[in-house]
Specification:
The longest helix is centred in the N-terminal third of the chain and has 13 residues. The protein has one domain: 3-Layer(aba) Sandwich (Rossmann fold). The chain is built from five helices and six strands, in the order E-H-E-H-E-E-H-E-H-E-H. Strands 1, 2, 3, 4, 5 and 6 form a six-stranded mixed beta sheet that branches. By secondary structure, the protein is α/β, with parallel strands linked by helices. The structure holds flavin mononucleotide.
Amino acid sequence: MNKTLVIYYSFSGNCKKIAEYSKEKLNADLIELSPKESFSDDYDEVVAEWQNNDIKRDVDIKKLDIDISQYDKIVLITCVWWYGISPVMKRFLKEYDLSNKKIIVAASNAGWIGHALKDYESLLPNSIIKGELNLLFSSEKDKRHEMITSIDEIDKWLENIND
Ligand SMILES: Cc1cc2nc3c(=O)[nH]c(=O)nc-3n(C[C@H](O)[C@H](O)[C@H](O)COP(=O)(O)O)c2cc1C
């Protein structure tokens, strides 16, 4: 068994692009996480909603049509929501067992990554985390999709999964 799976959650598309890039680069399989009930399409509305409510609240996620036990290497990519990993990724890590798998993690953000990488570590106590990426995008409203992290940095991070 030497298969790699990329698992991501992306609200506004940044993580999706990097997840697709990672899939190609690693010749991996790809799976997207989604909330059971969709969030609003309006970015500012979601920011306001999640700011005004308790960020620790849970969301249900759609069941995955994949057998994770057949993969020994996992790439996890999520956006940061209020200084931590997205509630969708958090829920996934609570529901699915990734013990003993080799894992690299990324958290996309606009400059305030907060405790997102620590969140991964605490939710993956029995996994082997080989690489952590602070995936930085512009914080300017009109440039939300402009990546500051270089492709070189992403390539180096991806190499860790094969070490
Ligand atoms: C509800 C919400 C909360 C966010 N909280 C943060 C934050 O705490 N720190 C930060 O740097 N960026 C924050 N952002 C910005 C996103 O993390 C950033 O734009 C990321 O690249 C989006 O990835 P995506 O396009 O894959 O969803 C937030 C965005 C949303 C929608």
